[in-house]
Amino acid sequence: xxxxxxxxxxxxxxxxxxxxxxxxxxxxxxxxxxxxxxxxxxxxxxxxxxxxxxxxxxxxxxxxxxxxxxxxxxxxxxxxxxxxxxxxxxxxxxxxxxxxxxxxxxxxxxxxxxxxxxxxxxxxxxxxxxxxxxxxxxxxxxxxxxxxxxxxxxxxxxxxxxxxxxxxxxxxxxxxxxxxxxxxxxxxxxxxxxxxxxxxxxxxxxxxxxxxxxxxxxxxxxxxxxxxxxxxxxxxxxxxxxxxxxxxxxxxxxxxxxxxxxxxxxxxxxxxxxxxxxxxxxxxxxxxxxxxxxxxxxxxxxxxxxxxxxxxxxxxxxxxxxxxxxxxxxxxxxxxxxxxxxxxxxxxxxxxxxxxxxxxxxxxxxxxxxxxxxxxxxxxxxxxxxxxxxxxxxxxxxxxxxxxxxxxxxxxxxxxxxxxxxxxxxxxxxxxxxxxxxxxxxxxxxxxxxxxxxxxxxxxxxxxxxxxxxxxxxxxxxxxxxxxxxxxxxxxxxxxxxxxxxxxxxxxxxxxxxxxxxxxxxxxxxxxx
Length: 529
Ligand code: F6P
Prior knowledge:
Layout: H1 5-14, H2 19-22, H3 28-31, E1 33-36, E2 39-42, H4 50-62, H5 65-73, E3 100-101, E4 104-105, H6 107-126, E5 131-135, H7 142-150, E6 159-163, H8 168-175, E7 183-188, H9 195-210, H10 215-218, E8 219-223, H11 226-232, E9 239-241, H12 258-285, H13 292-306, E10 311-316, H14 324-336, E11 354-357, H15 368-373, E12 380-385, H16 394-413, H17 417-426, H18 431-440, E13 449-454, H19 459-480, H20 491-504, H21 515-527
Parallel strand pairs: 5-6, 5-7, 7-8, 8-9, 10-11, 10-12, 12-13
Antiparallel strand pairs: 1-2, 2-13, 3-4
Bound molecules: 6-O-phosphono-beta-D-fructofuranose.
């Protein structure tokens, strides 16, 4: 049996209990919430009680989370399958102490690169560059794309675009209408080998040359592979390097964040780093019972591994956080979507949940039906700011807040059959028709949610939020006994795509391919122009 055996037995008892009735205890919110700086995390609308919470908190010690955390921050090679340290936290360790990897302090190099980024960003912002195109994919795209959109009220630099998909539609739609003489292209790729990124980069370079631009001046690169950026012909003064101990999906804090720094300015970018740094400090200092990342992780483990709720909806009530679910999807699913424990044995329980979601209130008019009345329980994670950025539109923001709070209340309370019947009776229905119609209007309720609330989505706060989720994923990974920092699961598809490319181009037969793949190759060949 697994380490969760006792908790699973407990869950059978408490899962069906009314969450609403738990509020009979007067201090429930104080007990089931946490604060970090100005940020408030409320997890009282879950079916957790004190005894369950104690049992969950025991996992923090039994899994050695504090010592693993300290090992990560101090540069120990906790990414054991790649023999690498995990040091995205060092990228925002602005005025912290030295961080040692293989006997050398990595901080001077980090601070020097940050300074070069600042110089470059200031120059681009002062120059006649009108548009910046970041070409990258996965962690080299989602982080800066999400953050640039989230911080659009602070955007005072050139227009910023993101191209990720190898589908020619993406680069074509993006470059159409841009002036090749005033566009800066940033090629963002940790490895500088990713086929999508390199294909898009070559297309952008050809476009720039054909349209009067100068790639030797108007291309920059963000990568750990400086030899490959040189081979591509990028001026070394416009190359910003980083080390392999920064995972792709954790890389927005360093050079991969250059497009964000150009968009919001170095000052905004530093505030973003400071926000993350403040969450790092909270994570390292707060006791488990008050530790926001640890609590978020335990709520996640409770819902996924213990209660068996397979998915998790991320629901930011903030239009500008519309890419947060996509970003967290990579962060969580690429980190914790594993089947093998660090010691090589199979994981005896489910690992990472399916993460999905969309900005509220739009989602309410699309998929919330299933969340409220579907047969599966979907724990929801709401995010909401107390203030918007539109001083003339505070009535919009109040409506947004009301909707956010109403959803978590509705999910918890539900509507009983007798309440629904009363509604139908008020409409004049009687007998079996009243009952039939009432059943369709029944909300089971008792559906768990958490809410993360903060004063305003500014750069500092965004840094806090992203670091909070990073650490949550770390804690979940440690408790699950997996390595959250490799991603071997993406390799096989890449290898097969490489082997299929000549088959699709018609220069090789589909030898050795299964019947389905061979038939699809035939169909494409028949219909391709
Ligand atoms: O294929 C997955 C992945 O390796 C991600 O982990 C990474 O963020 C993305 O591809 C892009 O990789 P790179 O930055 O090396 O181009």
